[in-house]
Each structure stands twice: as C-alpha cells, then as structure tokens.
Amino acid sequence: MFPKGSPGLLYVHIPFCEVLCPYCSFNRFVFNEIEARAYFESLRSELRLLADKGFDFQSMYIGGGTPTILVDELCNIIKIARQYFHIEEVSCETNPNHLTDAVVKPLEGLVQRMSVGVQTFNDDLLKKLNRYNRFGSGDELFKKIVAYRNAFPTVNVDMMFNFPEQTREMVLNDAEKILQSGVKQATFYPLMSSSEPPEDKNEKQFYDLIRNCLSREYRLSTAWTFSKAEENTLIDEYVVDYPNYIGAGAGAFSYFNGRLHVNFFFLDQYNERLLKGELPILGYTEFSKPARMRYYFMMNLFGGTLVKHEFLNEFQMPVERGLWKEMLFLRGAGAFQENTRERIVLSSKGRYLLMVMMKEFFTSVNWLREQARGNRLILQKV
User: Fold this and answer.
1) What separation in angstroms does the CA of 360 have from each of 337, 342, 366?
2) Which of 2, 24, 116, 344 fits a disulfide with 306 by CB distance 3.0 to 4.6 angstroms?
3) What is the pLDDT of residues 273-317, one digit of tens each?
4) DSSP string of 103-128?
5) CA–centroid distance for 379 within its chain
C-alpha cells in the first residue's frame, strides 16, 4: 500500500460533466444525479479510510470533471475533509455556467481559490470547441468573470492557446481581456493532446505575446500561471508546491515517495472496492532514483527556481552530478538567469522550455490515463 509518512496535499476528483469536452482527457462521465450521489458517498468512504490510515493534509485541490455539479455534495465533501484532516486551503475548479449565486454562495468561506474554465473569449473558437451554446459568448463570459472576480480570495481564469485556427490577434485579445477583468490570477495552457499533438509553429510566438502583455500587471507563478504581483496565491499545478500528494476519486493518481498509485477508473469498480472497506487502488509503479530526480527537478524549475541544498537533502547528491545531462542542456540553451551554489533561477527562455517540458509531461500523463482506462497499463497490483 502507501509508504509511511504524510504528504501535504489531497487531490479529490469529481468526474461528472453535463457535456464532455472533446479535448479533455481527464477521467469523466456524463452527469447522472443518481450515479453522482452514489459516487459522493463512496468518496466520503475513501476519505475516511485515508484518515483511518493516519494520513493528514494541509491543502486540498478538487478537480474534474466539474466539481460544482452538485454543490450540496461538494460542500459536504469539503466539510468532511476539514474534519478528518488539517486542511488550511481549498482550491476548486468550475465552469462558467456555475458562476451563479446558487453555486457560489454556499462555497464562500469553504473555497479559497476557484478556477474557472473559460479557454478563450473568441466566439468563433468557442463555437468550434462546442462551448458557445453551453457557456455563452465571449462577452457574456467576460461579464460573468468580472461579476464574480471577488467571490473568493482568488479567482483564477483557465485559458488555452495554440488552437489550429487561432491568430495572433485572437491571442492578444484574450490576454487583454484578462487584464481588463481584474482577476487575481490566470493560467494560459498550451493546447495538449495525447492522440493528435498540435502544431508548435506558433506556440512560442503566442506564449511570448501572452507573457509580454500580462507582465504589465502580473508576475509568473509558474511558466504558465500569471498572478497579481502582490498576491501569494494557490496554483493549478499543485505538484510544484506539493511533490507528494494523495489522490481520491475514480481515476485519481497519487505520487508519494517515488511510487505512483492509480485508482480504479470505472465507477462500478471504484464503488465496489470501497463497499469492501478497501482503498480503490488499481495498482502502482515504482520510479527509479533518476526518474524521481528528473521529476523533482522539472516540478521545481516549472515554478521558476530550484534550491540546490533541498535537492541535495532529497537525493544525497548534488544536482550537477545527479542530472548532469539535463544541466548541460539547459545551460547551453540559455535557460538559466541565475545558476549559483545556492539556486537556479530560470530566464525567460528557460520558462518557455519548462512550459514545453511540462506540456510533454502532461501529454504522457494523458496517455497513461488512456492505458489505465483500457486496462493496458502494466502496474504492480495491490
């Protein structure tokens, strides 16, 4: 089972959506209220089992799917997690159609950061993404974001770029809309796909355009997350601040002390395991020490900085020796703004390179999900 110890973060997966987006590879199912309420009951059982096994967490991230699909159940899950664990901060995802008083008001005081999936303000792209009829026009989305931008301590807007039909003007307009909205945080993801990789010919140009535009009011929290300069906010890529985490829910991953655990993906298997009083773990795989070093290195640099003595304490080896090939490549590519005995700080070029590396990492995770969902992933069984 899990190694001994206690990671800092609990990830909770809510896999239901009203409509399934074509580009999303996360584990999700079309919403059915009876199935969803049964799922939340199983999820409560899983949290209780984790508490019984001695786990504790300071931070909680709720992703999906659409976590706000049943706000009463969501509120209950957060309250139960706070009873079981020492949760100090909660980050949650939602869709624009759930930015209503009926959904937002019950979550006030329970959620510290709400991340809203907008993707783009361009009407033509919204129609191609099958989001225009579901969530509204770009103008309607903008008005909703402005209306609820202070509903939580941090409201983050999730955006995407490098769509095949996207132009420089579209990208610039999206970035300007974020500036005008006054939100405390925005995350611009490059388009990712595990089946049909997008063309990269415009990716760096678009990335630089976004970064230069938003730098007037935002700082980079990670290579693709922009936060108001005065804010110390949570981010979507919790693995930057919490390299060890436990995932609860169907299809959730856990990474803990070099071991990756995968939960059952299908609802019947997930529920059945919990009815037996067992954690719903499909299997696990062990990471080698070099793989763990590379993972730690990438996650820290994605946040902009690597503290060298922390790497040494973690692996009993200096980063220059443990990852000499990676260090040589990044140094030669001009990725370091600072490389001293104490730390590494990325340059602007380095930020882009780490964005590309993280995109490839998430693409491989998407592939991993597809393999696990089809029972084609080779795992050690638990």
Assistant:
1) 23, 28, 10
2) 344
3) 999 999 999 888 888 999 999 989 998 898 889 999 999 999 999
4) HHHHHBTTBSEEEEEEE-S-HHHHHH
5) 23
Q: Is 247 helix (H, G, I), strand (E, B) or coil?
A: strand
Question: Residue 30's beta-bridge partner residues?
Answer: 17
User: Which helix (H) or strand (E) segment is 68 a member of?
Assistant: none
Q: What is the dihedral of CA 332, 338, 343, 347, to 10 degrees?
A: -70
Domains present along the chain, CATH in parentheses:
9-239 (3.80.30.20), 289-382 (1.10.10.920)
Separation CA 239–CA 156 (nearest Å) = 17
Counting Cβ atoms within 10 Å, is residue 19 exposed (0-12), middle (13-18) or buried (19+)? middle
Bridge partners (DSSP) listed for residue 367: none
Calculate ∠ Cα 284-286-292, nearest 5°: 130
pTM of the entire structure?
0.89
DSSP state of 287: P
> Would you report the helix, strand and coil content of the chain in percent, each value rounded to 5?
45, 20, 35
Q: What is the pLDDT of residue 6?
A: 61
